[in-house]
Design a protein that fits this description.
Cobalt-precorrin-4 Transmethylase, domain 1, Methyltransferase, Cobalt-precorrin-4 Transmethylase, Domain 2, five-stranded parallel beta sheet, five-stranded mixed beta sheet, 15% strand
C-alpha cells in the first residue's frame, strides 16, 4: 500500500534512479505529450531502438540529450550496464522507433530485469498502433487478443492462425509490408474470405488508409499493388452461441475431411447435419 501511495505522489520528474518507458508518435510527430518531452529533455540519457528515428523527434521539439542504441540485437548485452547506471542514480528513458516500448519491441526485455533489482519503472503513455487501429475499426474492443508479428516457422505460425480462426475475440496483428500478401492468404485459408478485417496502413500519417471489409476484399485490393508503410491488422472474432449460425467455413473443412476419410458426400452431409442440428441440404451444397 505504501508503494502505491508513493507512485501516485511522485516528485518532480525525472527522478534519479528511475527507468522511464516513453511512448513516442507512431507517425504524426504532434502525437507526443508535454510530459514525454520533459522526460526526454531531462533524463541522464535516452536508450533508443534507432538513434536516427529518435533524432527526428528531438529535432522537432528542440530536445538535446545523449542517445545510446538499445535494439533487438544488443539489448541483452546492454541491460547490465543500464542497471548499474540506474543504481548509481542516473535516470534513463527507453524509447522505440514508434509507439510504446515493450510492445513488439526490445523494451520489454529490460523491464523484468530492472524490477527484479527493486528499481522503479514508470511508463509515460503514448500512441500505440494496435489500439489506434482497434478503436478506428468499429469492431468489438472490450476484449481482444494482440498477437504482434506472427512467427515465421510453419508449425508455430499455423498454431496461432488456427487459434485466430476459432477466436471469439477481436485479434490484432502487426505485419511488414512485404509479407502482408502472404499473411492475407494464410488468413484466407484458416478464416475464410468473408471474415471481417481491417488493414490499417500508415496510421496517423498523411496517407493513412483503412482497407477492406473482409479478407477477400483486402486480397483483391492489394492484388496488383505494391504494399508500402506500416501495417496493423484487425480481425473480427467469430460470434458463437446456441442460436448463432454455424460457421460455414468450419463445416466445409469438416465435410472435406470426412469425404477424404472415405464417406460419400451424402453420408458426410447427413452426419454433420445431425451433429449440428441443421438441414442436410445446407451442408451438401457446401461441397
Amino acid at each position: 500500500m505504501t508503494h502505491n501511495y508513493l507512485l501516485s505522489h511522485r516528485k518532480e520528474e525525472p527522478e534519479k534512479g528511475v527507468l522511464y518507458l516513453v511512448g513516442t508518435p507512431i507517425g504524426n510527430l504532434n502525437d507526443i505529450s508535454p510530459r514525454a518531452i520533459n522526460i526526454l529533455k531531462n533524463v541522464s540519457f535516452i536508450a533508443c531502438e534507432d538513434t536516427r528515428q529518435t533524432r527526428k523527434i528531438m529535432h522537432k521539439f528542440n530536445i538535446t540529450n545523449n542517445l545510446i542504441s538499445f535494439n533487438k540485437e544488443n539489448s541483452f548485452k546492454k541491460i547490465p550496464k543500464l542497471i548499474t547506471d540506474l543504481k548509481s542514480g542516473k535516470s534513463i528513458a527507453v524509447v522505440s522507433d514508434a509507439g510504446m516500448p515493450g510492445i513488439s519491441d526490445p523494451g520489454e526485455n529490460i523491464v523484468n530485469k530492472v524490477k527484479s533489482e527493486q528499481i522503479d519503472v514508470i511508463c509515460i503513455p503514448g500512441a500505440c498502433a494496435a489500439i489506434t487501429a482497434l478503436v478506428a475499426s468499429g469492431m468489438p474492443s472490450s476484449k481482444f487478443v494482440f498477437e504482434g508479428f506472427l512467427p515465421r516457422k510453419k508449425i508455430e505460425r499455423e498454431k496461432i492462425l488456427f487459434e485466430i480462426s476459432k477466436n471469439e475475440k477481436t485479434t490484432l496483428i502487426y505485419e511488414s509490408p512485404h509479407r502482408l500478401k502472404k499473411l492475407l492468404n494464410d488468413l484466407l485459408d484458416f478464416c475464410g474470405g468473408d471474415r471481417e478485417i481491417l488493414i490499417a496502413r500508415e496510421l496517423t500519417k498523411k496517407f493513412e488508409e483503412h482497407i477492406g471489409n473482409n479478407i477477400d476484399d483486402a486480397i483483391n485490393y492489394f492484388k496488383n499493388k505494391e504494399v508500402l508503410g506500416e501495417i496493423t491488422i484487425v480481425i473480427k472474432g467469430i460470434y458463437m452461441d446456441n442460436n448463432s449460425e454455424i460457421n460455414k467455413f468450419d463445416l466445409k473443412k469438416d465435410l472435406k475431411e470426412l469425404i477424404n476419410a472415405g464417406l460419400s458426400l451424402s453420408s458426410a452431409s447427413k452426419y454433420l447435419a445431425k451433429k449440428h442440428g441443421i438441414k442436410k441440404s445446407i451442408i451438401y451444397n457446401l461441397n
